[in-house]
C-alpha cells in the first residue's frame, strides 16, 4: 500500500513561528491612525490588544518562540497530517504529485485554532478577563470560544447574520464552550443600530461585525478584542502550518513547485505559504509559485484596488494599505462565509503588489464541483472555503496533464465541512445562487474609499 500520510510526532513540532517581515525588502506602507491619518503608533493598539501581541505585530525577528503552554495546547491536534492525494491524482490522471496539509483535525475544525490558542494565552497572561470578536461562517468564533475556555477567559462573539441563520450548529458549538453569541448587525452597539436603521434586513458582513466587537471591547477595561485573520500577528501564529509542512515535505522527499491556499483575510494562505515563500524572497528558489484563491463574488486581490482602507464598516480600526473592495462592500451570501471579507492582509497585499504571489478566483459552482470530487476520492468533506484551494489544485494538476509535466502541488485544506452540509445540500439540490455581476457593487464601494 502507498503510505499516503506523512506525520510528525509531538516532539517534532516546530518550536518557533516564522515572521516574514524581515524578508520583505521593499518598503511597506504603515498602518495609519483612523483620526489623524498619521502612521499609527504601537500604543494606538493598546485599547484593543495586549502588549505581547502588539510587539509581534511589529516584530523585527525572523523567528518567534512559541510559548510552551501554547505548544501543549497545539499538541492536542498538532502536528497535523500532510497527505499525498494519490486517489485524486489517479482520478485526474495527472502526472502531478498533489499534497495537502489538513488543518481540519481539531474540534473547531479549521486552522483558526492556531492563532486562537496563542491570542487567548497572551491575553490571559496580560490579565484580560474577556475577549470580544466577530465571526463570519463561525469557524473563528468556534476556535476562539474553545481557546478562551481553555485559558478561563469569557468570550463574546458577533456572528454575521447570514451565517447565524445558515449555520445554527456553529452557534451551538460556541455556546457549548461558554461563549455568548449575537447575530450581527445587532442592536447592542451603535454600529449595529446604525446599519439596522438603514437596512433592517442586512445579511451582515465581517466589516460590520468587527465594528460591533471593537466598539464593545474599547468600552470595557477588562475586555480586549481578538481578530481571526488579516493582522501580522495572526499570520505569524499560522506559520506553524508551513513550518510543519516543510519538515513533512522533506520527509516525503519532495518540494512544492506550486503552493496553493484560499484567502479570506489571508491568514491560512500565509500560514502555509510564507514558510516556502521565504526561499523565494531569499533567492534560493525564485521559480516557486504561491497562489491565493478567492471567491469570484468577493475577489479582493483579483478585482480590488491597492489602497488605504478601514478593516471594519464604521471606520474604528486603523487604516491599512491593502487590496480592498471597500469597507462598505457587502459580499454576496456565498456559502464560503469565511471568505466574505472586503480587505486582505497588508502583508499578503504587499506581496501581491510586488508580484511575489499570484491570485485566482472561482465561482461557487466551480468550488462545489471540486469539493465533491475531493470527497469522493480522498474521503474528506472539505469546508467550502478550502474547496477554493482544491479547485485551484485541480486546475494546476490538469495543466500538468496537458503539458506532461510532473509538478509537485501543495495546498492547504484549511478546514472540514461537517458544519456546511446545508451548503452542500444547496449545491446538490441545484439551489446555488451565483452572483451575476458583482463588479458594479464593487465599483460603488471603491468609490467611497477614504481619501488619504
Ligand atoms: C476562516 C477560514 C478561511 C479563511 O481564512 P483566512 O485566514 O482569513 O484567509 C479559510 N478556510 C476556513 C476553513 C476558514 O475557517
What order do the helices and strands come in, and which of them pair?
Blueprint: E1 5-6, E2 16-18, H1 51-57, E3 63-65, H2 68-74, E4 82-84, H3 86-92, E5 97-102, H4 113-125, E6 130-135, H5 139-150, E7 154-160, H6 161-166, H7 168-176, E8 180-184, H8 190-198, H9 206-219, E9 223-225, H10 232-238, H11 240-251, E10 258-262, H12 267-281, E11 289-295, H13 300-303, E12 305-310, E13 319-324, H14 346-353, E14 358-362, H15 364-378, H16 384-403, E15 408-413, H17 421-428, H18 439-447
Parallel strand pairs: 5-15, 6-7, 6-9, 7-8, 10-11, 10-15, 11-14
Antiparallel strand pairs: 1-4, 2-3, 4-5, 12-13
Pyridoxal-5'-phosphate is lined by residues 110, 112, 139-140, 229, 262-269, 338-339, 383, 385-386, 414-415.
Supply the key terms.
452 residues, alpha/beta, Rossmann fold, binds pyridoxal-5'-phosphate
Characterization of the model:
It contains 18 helices and 15 strands. Strands 1-4-5-15-10-11-14 form a 7-stranded mixed β-sheet, sandwiched between helices. Strands 8-7-6-9 form a 4-stranded parallel β-sheet, sandwiched between helices. Strands 2-3 form a two-stranded antiparallel sheet. Strand 10, helix 12 and strand 11 form a beta-alpha-beta unit. The longest helix is centred in the C-terminal third of the chain and has 20 residues. The termini are far apart. The relative contact order is 0.15.
Amino acid at each position: 500500500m502507498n503510505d499516503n500520510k506523512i506525520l510528525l510526532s509531538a516532539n517534532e513540532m516546530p518550536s518557533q513561528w516564522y515572521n516574514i517581515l524581515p524578508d520583505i525588502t521593499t518598503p511597506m506602507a504603515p498602518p495609519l491612525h483612523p483620526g489623524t491619518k498619521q502612521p499609527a503608533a504601537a500604543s494606538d493598539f493598546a485599547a484593543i490588544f495586549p502588549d505581547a501581541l502588539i510587539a509581534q505585530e511589529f516584530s523585527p525577528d525572523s523567528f518567534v518562540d512559541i510559548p510552551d503552554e501554547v505548544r501543549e495546547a497545539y499538541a492536542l491536534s498538532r502536528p497535523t497530517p500532510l497527505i499525498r492525494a494519490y486517489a485524486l491524482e489517479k482520478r485526474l490522471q495527472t502526472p502531478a504529485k498533489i499534497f495537502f496539509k489538513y488543518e481540519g483535525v481539531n474540534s473547531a475544525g479549521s486552522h483558526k485554532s492556531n492563532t486562537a490558542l496563542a491570542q487567548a494565552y497572551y491575553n490571559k497572561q496580560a490579565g484580560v478577563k474577556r475577549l470580544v470578536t466577530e465571526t463570519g461562517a463561525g469557524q473563528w468564533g468556534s476556535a476562539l470560544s474553545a481557546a478562551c475556555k481553555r485559558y478561563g477567559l469569557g468570550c463574546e462573539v458577533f456572528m454575521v447574520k447570514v451565517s447565524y441563520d445558515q449555520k445554527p450548529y456553529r452557534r451551538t458549538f460556541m455556546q457549548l464552550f461558554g461563549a455568548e453569541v449575537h447575530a450581527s448587525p445587532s442592536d447592542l452597539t451603535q454600529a449595529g443600530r446604525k446599519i439596522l436603521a438603514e437596512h433592517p434586513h442586512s445579511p451582515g458582513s465581517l466589516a460590520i461585525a468587527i465594528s460591533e466587537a471593537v466598539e464593545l471591547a474599547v468600552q470595557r477595561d477588562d475586555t480586549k478584542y481578538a481578530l481571526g485573520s488579516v493582522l501580522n500577528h495572526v499570520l505569524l501564529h499560522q506559520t506553524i502550518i508551513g513550518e510543519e509542512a516543510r519538515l513533512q515535505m522533506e520527509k516525503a522527499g519532495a518540494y512544492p513547485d506550486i503552493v496553493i491556499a484560499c484567502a479570506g483575510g489571508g491568514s491560512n494562505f500565509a500560514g502555509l505559504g510564507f514558510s516556502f515563500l521565504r526561499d523565494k524572497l531569499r533567492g534560493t528558489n525564485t521559480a516557486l509559485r504561491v497562489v491565493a484563491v478567492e471567491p469570484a463574488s468577493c475577489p479582493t486581490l483579483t478585482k480590488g484596488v491597492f489602497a488605504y482602507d478601514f478593516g471594519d464598516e464604521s471606520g474604528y480600526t486603523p487604516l491599512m494599505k491593502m487590496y480592498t473592495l471597500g469597507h462598505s462592500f457587502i459580499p454576496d451570501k456565498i456559502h464560503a462565509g469565511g471568505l466574505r471579507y472586503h480587505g486582505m492582509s497588508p502583508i499578503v497585499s504587499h506581496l501581491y503588489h510586488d508580484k511575489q504571489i499570484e491570485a485566482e478566483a472561482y465561482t461557487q459552482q466551480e468550488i462545489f464541483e471540486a469539493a465533491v470530487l475531493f470527497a469522493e476520492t480522498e474521503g474528506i468533506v472539505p469546508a467550502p472555503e478550502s474547496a477554493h484551494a482544491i479547485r485551484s489544485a485541480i486546475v494546476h494538476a490538469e495543466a500538468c496533464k496537458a503539458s506532461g509535466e510532473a509538478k509537485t502541488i501543495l495546498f492547504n485544506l484549511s478546514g472540514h465541512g461537517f458544519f456546511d452540509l446545508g451548503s452542500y445540500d444547496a449545491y446538490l439540490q441545484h439551489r446555488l445562487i451565483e452572483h451575476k455581476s458583482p463588479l458594479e457593487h464593487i465599483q460603488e464601494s471603491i468609490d467611497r474609499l477614504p481619501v488619504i
